[in-house]
Amino acid sequence: MSVYRTLTAAEAVDYARQHAGLAQPDALVAAEEVGDGNLNLVFKILDGQGISRAIVKQALPYVRCVGESWPLTPDRARIEAEILLVHGEFCPRHTVKILHHDAGLAVMIQEDLSDHLIWRRELLKGAFYPQAARQLGEYLAQTLFHTSDFYQPPQRKKAEVSRFTNPEMCQITEDLVFTDPYIEHERNASDPSLAADVAAIQADRALKAAVAALKHRFLSQAQALLHGDIHSGSIFVAQGRLKVIDAEFGYYGPVGFDIGTAMGNLLLNYCGLPGLLALREAAAAREQRLQDVRELWLAFAGGFQALAAEKSRDIMLAEPDYVRRFLREVWIDALGYCGTELIRRTIGFAHVADLDSITDESMRHECQRHALNLGKMLIFAAAHISDADALVARIRQNG
Ligand code: SR1
Ligand code: MG
């Protein structure tokens, strides 16, 4: 019999008192439900002064932003907690700390991050965190290298692939990222004035074939334990600090998917900035975003290469020429996945504030078209873009 029940705010407080492992559990007195994502309940657990001391996150048995008509496995909470524990083992500096988790209740308690801010909200305001992209690149290098065949003993790695099989959440990504935007589908949403752009995308056989190749790799390449949804809303920042949360879409997949998703969300901000900020601020922030994309790749690739040289357990995979070849393959994948993220966040089911919060309608459409064109360009040109500087040059040429 399942023990699952949805927690009330009072129960969340009690739960945190019992399980958070805080020095003064009785100081916890109230909970505030703050979940603004698409899927879960999220409670801040407050002390008598109203200061948040821990976060209780519970998976609902359905997609929160849709309702009970879209059921979804609560087992995603176990997978998320276990992924964050693994990522925390390899990159404690940039992974949120899991204090406790319970598979039956689909609940986890995380460290409080109230002294950080959500990166996306900061990017919308044009705030710059000069170390964030490098730190995100470090997180990706550490977590993806240490969970891959470069480092994991082969039998253990196969057991990990099985532990982190996440079919329901992967299907959401498979559908929402790689299929729906390229067909007529009731889940898609876009401004009516983009109808011709959407029709062109859905009629473009060459584009569909290129996206099919990316989808096929997402379906079949168990390279490393991915975060699976690493966008700027799943990242907390403070000056000099960065923490990754929300790994419920994680599974063993192609390394380039995490890199491309992260880059794609930075570029969604790049595309939206002219509609979000005044001319000069937008221009400055766009330059920062291009530098962020460059830094992110260089930190990831440099970090991965150094780890491969120092810590690879497979002596064949550690061959420097092979490491370079592997990183080239990751780069091409990442540019493609960056492109699919740009497209799906513009005309698919789940949008981003970087574009949708632009109030001037014609400016919003211009920014959305830019995101679509940049996405298409990246998908088609991925194999012809040699490095991060060439990427930045291509993005500038694109508008
Ligand atoms: C039904 S979930 C929709 C989207 O929200 C999440 O953040 C993922 O990006 C997913 O694709
Ligand atoms: Mg999320």
TrEMBL record:
<keyword id="KW-0028">Amino-acid biosynthesis</keyword>
<feature type="binding site">
    <location>
        <begin position="246"/>
        <end position="248"/>
    </location>
    <ligand>
        <name>ATP</name>
    </ligand>
</feature>
<dbReference type="InterPro" id="IPR011009">
    <property type="entry name" value="Kinase-like_dom_sf"/>
</dbReference>
<dbReference type="InterPro" id="IPR002575">
    <property type="entry name" value="Aminoglycoside_PTrfase"/>
</dbReference>
<keyword id="KW-0418">Kinase</keyword>
<dbReference type="GO" id="GO:0019509">
    <property type="term" value="P:L-methionine salvage from methylthioadenosine"/>
</dbReference>
<keyword id="KW-0547">Nucleotide-binding</keyword>
<keyword id="KW-0067">ATP-binding</keyword>
<feature type="binding site">
    <location>
        <position position="344"/>
    </location>
    <ligand>
        <name>substrate</name>
    </ligand>
</feature>
<dbReference type="GO" id="GO:0046522">
    <property type="term" value="F:S-methyl-5-thioribose kinase activity"/>
</dbReference>
<protein>
    <recommendedName>
        <fullName>Methylthioribose kinase</fullName>
        <ecNumber>2.7.1.100</ecNumber>
    </recommendedName>
</protein>
<feature type="binding site">
    <location>
        <position position="40"/>
    </location>
    <ligand>
        <name>ATP</name>
    </ligand>
</feature>
<comment type="similarity">
    <text>Belongs to the methylthioribose kinase family.</text>
</comment>
<feature type="domain" description="Aminoglycoside phosphotransferase">
    <location>
        <begin position="32"/>
        <end position="269"/>
    </location>
</feature>
<dbReference type="InterPro" id="IPR009212">
    <property type="entry name" value="Methylthioribose_kinase"/>
</dbReference>
<dbReference type="Pfam" id="PF01636">
    <property type="entry name" value="APH"/>
</dbReference>
<feature type="binding site">
    <location>
        <position position="229"/>
    </location>
    <ligand>
        <name>substrate</name>
    </ligand>
</feature>
<comment type="function">
    <text>Catalyzes the phosphorylation of methylthioribose into methylthioribose-1-phosphate.</text>
</comment>
<comment type="pathway">
    <text>Amino-acid biosynthesis; L-methionine biosynthesis via salvage pathway; S-methyl-5-thio-alpha-D-ribose 1-phosphate from S-methyl-5'-thioadenosine (hydrolase route): step 2/2.</text>
</comment>
<comment type="subunit">
    <text>Homodimer.</text>
</comment>
<keyword id="KW-0486">Methionine biosynthesis</keyword>
<keyword id="KW-0808">Transferase</keyword>
<feature type="binding site">
    <location>
        <position position="57"/>
    </location>
    <ligand>
        <name>ATP</name>
    </ligand>
</feature>
<dbReference type="GO" id="GO:0005524">
    <property type="term" value="F:ATP binding"/>
</dbReference>
<feature type="binding site">
    <location>
        <begin position="111"/>
        <end position="113"/>
    </location>
    <ligand>
        <name>ATP</name>
    </ligand>
</feature>
